[in-house]
Amino acid sequence: MNRIELTLDAVDAAQAEILMAELADYPFDSFEVEGARLKAYVAQDRLADCKEAVDALLARYGVSHATYLSLEPQNWNALWERNFTPVRVDERLTIRTPFHAASTTPLEVVVMPRMSFGTGHHATTCLMAAGVLDHDVAGLRGLDMGSGTGVLAIVAALRGAAGVDAVDIDEWAYENSIENIRRNGVESKVSPILGGVETIAGRHYDFILANINRNILISQLPAYAAALDAGGWLLMSGILESDLDFLSEAARAEGFSVTGTAVRDGWARLDVVKM
């Protein structure tokens, strides 16, 4: 299947990051940012349903020049393998692929991305992984919502979580998470689930990890609140630093108390607890 490369020049690097966050609401599955230049990639058949909305979005931000380029089918995984480098999170965790040597950090997760989000290279994945490392999850039941590669669920399982549901609406991500869960030997603890927030109805968790985007986080906050008992905690990312106040207020309205924040490269994580 052909893929489409959308290339645009933003006003500056900050706007490029904002546009990447906005485009993540559409079926774009990978991005490259270099200064003010942003490249976003999407399957050709998925672009047809959203191109008009994407063009309107770019117009609202004053982007006057954007090009769509059809890319011939190629071995994307081989390209990623050639360019993928291991990621270290605060010298406590390494996220690497099978073709890298074992790390010297106390903990490591081995993933093969296969076009799923969650390699650790994006600031939000690092922020979320660090958040999991900062919490004692031993014996707890958790949810990784929008799990992508499953890396956050795997980190929690390796740190002693009793069980983690890894939920993603994308079938490619679901299949990839199964592979990565097996690769890290946590099949008995991590349960991959294909679907959206409706799949957690009636389930209860001690903690929830949600690395998605602002609009989806806002819409799903009531479901997170229903799934957590008092004292349960929720880490959210996929948001820009400028979104922190807005998301904090929305969380408070659903009965959460803000316990902390973390920022990396303009992206942010919000930590809350159910009151």
Labels describing this entry:
four-stranded antiparallel β-sheet, 14 strands, 32% strand, Rossmann fold, 275 residues, alpha/beta, 9 helices, globular
Q: How does this structure look, described?
A:
This protein has 275 residues and is of the alpha/beta class. It has two domains: 3-74, VC0802-like (2-Layer Sandwich); 82-274, Vaccinia Virus protein VP39 (Rossmann fold, 3-Layer(aba) Sandwich). 33% of the residues lie in helices and 32% in strands. The protein is built from nine helices and 14 strands. It has helices at residues 13-23, 44-47, 51-60, 76-83, 123-134, 151-158, 171-183, 214-227, 244-253; strands at residues 3-9, 30-34, 37-43, 66-71, 87-89, 93-96, 107-110, 141-145, 163-168, 190-194, 205-211, 228-240, 256-264, 267-274. The strands form three sheets. Strands 10-9-8-11-12-14-13 form a seven-stranded mixed beta sheet, with helices on both faces. Strand 13 (256-264) and strand 14 (267-274) form a beta hairpin. Helix 5 packs parallel to helix 6. It is globular. The protein starts with a strand and ends with a strand.
Number of strand segments: 14
CATH level-two architecture of the largest domain: 3-Layer(aba) Sandwich
Helix content: 25-40%
**What do the pLDDT scores average to?**
89
What gyration radius follows from the Cα positions, in whole Å?
A: 18 Å
How many strands, what sense, and barrel or not for the largest sheet? 7 strands, mixed
Global outline: globular
